[in-house]
Amino acid sequence: QQPVQSPQAVILREGEDAVINCSSSKALYSVHWYRQKHGEAPVFLMILLKGGEQKGHEKISASFNEKKQQSSLYLTASQLSYSGTYFCGTLDRGSTLGRLYFGRGTQLTVWP
Amino acid sequence: DTGVSQNPRHKITKRGQNVTFRCDPISEHNRLYWYRQTLGQGPEFLTYFQNEAQLEKSRLLSDRFSAERPKGSFSTLEIQRTEQGDSAMYLCASTSQETQYFGPGTRLLVL
Q1: Which residues pair with A75 in a beta bridge?
Q2: How many domains does one find in chain A?
Q3: What's the CATH number where A90 sits?
Q4: What is the pLDDT of residues B36-88, one digit of tens each?
Q5: Is A32 in contact with B103 (Cβ distance < 8 A)?
Q6: Which of B31, B48, B101 comes nearest A44 by C-beta?
Q7: Is the Cβ pair A102, B98 closer than 8 Å?
Q8: Interchain CB distance below 8 Å, B100 and A32
């Protein structure tokens, strides 16, 4: 039930783009993306609630392919502040309690 | 700052001692979750409250763990007879609809 994230780590130069993928073996109701900096709590980025939905947050956007049970997070023109670990959390279709399953995270490092 | 607060932020204890953590959710949020996070992992679900009712507990939550949410406001998580394997970050999250907002966490180290 834990989603699988890829890649495990990404190293970028400032201004480069990155894509982080999240896939589940279960039918999904929603996908939640968070960024966590070392020693801090996860910070909510965005939620995708229905298949095909795309959302944006500054230069960070995401898509949700309900049929493939996958979501992707797109970071464009990366900034130093984007460094951190990105987690996807998935809510299974049919869940009534809102319990999220989180992937192991993708560590993103942006260098100047 | 998400509006969710947790205390203490850090706790060091000796094996066998009891510890209690507190979470104050965003005031209008009726749902509250506890997660545990170890190094290199994502948060793992522990338990869930809707108002004062504890509706689900993970199998990760052994008998040494207990959580309460009296009056549907703040919540406490107690670990009895702590073990070294309990060392982790304990996160609380609250929500009223879909988005879960996390508190800063309590980092527990069991010596």
Answers
A1: A18, A60
A2: 1
A3: 2.60.40.10
A4: 999 989 999 999 999 999 888 888 788 999 999 998 899 999 999 999 999 99
A5: no
A6: B101
A7: no
A8: yes
